[in-house]
Design goal:
Number of strands: 3
CATH architecture: Roll
InterPro entries: Ub_conjugating_enzyme, UBC, UBQ-conjugating_enzyme/RWD
Largest sheet: 3 strands, antiparallel
Strand content: 25-35%
CATH class: Alpha Beta
Protein name: Ubiquitin-conjugating enzyme E2
Number of helices: 1
Keywords: Ubl conjugation pathway
Organism: Colletotrichum liriopes
């Protein structure tokens, strides 16, 4: 089965995050079977009221990602 543009793009972005992770953020697909559903953990930045906190996030990408949604 051919990969959709969304799957190719998300794989590319996941590799970039893995190779050069931003400080205080981890993110990736929930499973290999669904690249459109990710989970992330964001650490609160030092010197802010959020310091010491870890904030979970759920990311759900549309099937036509990265194309913008049209009205």
């Amino acid at each position: 089965m051919a990969q959709s543009t969304a799957h190719r793009r998300l794989l590319q972005e996941y590799r970039a995050l893995t190779n050069n992770p931003p400080e205080g953020i981890t993110a990736g697909p929930v499973s290999e079977d669904d690249l459109l559903h990710w989970e992330a953990l964001i650490q609160g930045p030092e010197g802010t009221p959020f310091e010491g906190g870890v904030f979970p996030a759920e990311l759900k990408f549309p099937k036509d990602y990265p194309s913008p949604r049209r009205p």
